Amino acid sequence: MKTVMLLINGFGIETKESYSIYDANLMPNFDLLTKKYMFQSLNSNVDSIYEGYRNMSLEINELYNYHIYERELLSGNIFKNNTYTVINSELQNRKSKLHIFVLVDTSLKIVDNIKSFIKQINKDHDKKIFLHIVLTSTNYEDYPQIINVLSKINVDLSDYATIGMIMGLENLLNSNPITELNFFLKILISEVGEKWQSFKQKLDVSYGTKTSPTAIKPFVVNSGFGIEANDLFVIWNYDNIDITNFIDGIKRINYGEISNNVAFYSLFPITYHAEINYFLNYETSPKSLATNMKGLDFKSLILTNKEQVSIINYYLNGLNNVNNPDISYLAMDNIMYDVNSIVNIINTNSQELIIINYDITSVLTVEELQNTLNKIDKVIEGIYKNTEKNSYNIIISSLFGMNKTIPNQKGEICHIDYNKVPIVYINNFITRKNYLINEGSINELLKICYYSISKKYMGTSLIVKKNWLYRLIFK
To answer: N or C: which end of the chain has fewer CB within 10 A?
Structure first.
């Protein structure tokens, strides 16, 4: 049976501290459906449509490449790896420092991964190893979790390595201006720069000023890391990044009569114009929308902005950017709120799953946000009324709730904070009288679609039948 999933990305359940946006008059159709059909809230720990599609399609809460490292660690293969052998040998022969640029988000798994590597390579405690922390999160609300990760790194690895510097990812990327890169390189050479022995205090300040973690300028935590001609560098990355200018900048440093003999390695492949030896290769995920479509024999149509197609396709195909004939895309840039056009697309396309994407996070004022939600509500009305002639399932939800400060018409600063996202499930046979939606996360959204589309689906779903006791108590 055909299922239409409408995602209002950025829309969520307001916290007590949030400026109140939602009311029944603003979205009367959505409000009606929450009362008439099954309604629940879902957890979402992401803040972008890209991460949302990753979690929804791959059914995970983090980068898939963490799992690859853990698998190789459990098998012992990581320490039989040729790149590990080369680094270990070079450290013995060169008597040099090892600089590890650790790309850190909010996952504690990073700590366990890097700890396993450093404990093995410095088991005699005789090597100079410096960890330079690179923050990758774009959400300032992640600071408390980031501080937990860094505190664990500081405690668990203090006998084997020292935190040298902390910075945002933007400082390493090729998009970073050369002038800022040169400033960063001077700090790496001279160790002269902003210094905070308490990184927690510095990050608390950045949190208070709502600075994105990825935009933090480099600051020094401990001294002694000044780079020298024979030093080794490991980029501890889980995603492919382009840091060509950074690598070239370090290789161009003039050490006088001593030749620049630095060497670079990475955990996973990175973009560079010459070969950089790496530990592990990227893999496709065994779980994805594409995999389940093949098993359940259905096709999908995705309505989204043109700029989002490539990354959505990457996650829906299990970390593989292929042209899958069973997944089609339609650009909705010009028909975003055109009710007739969207309803016509639903009616004239035969795909069993149609996903319609909205993103409300780019709004600049409260009034613009309210106007956008009102226009989306009219689309909801059109889709719902269309089911009277063409019966299909409807799921209304969001991949993430935004956390944003914007002004209203009076010039007042309003902080909007959505900590969970809603889900409404509309099905004429699976009704709220006999069924309910269990609490869960956005990882379960596509499972509800599979459950709705095909009787072949034998997996779990948040849609569960009420037992007699539940019906007796909650009539």
So the answer is: C
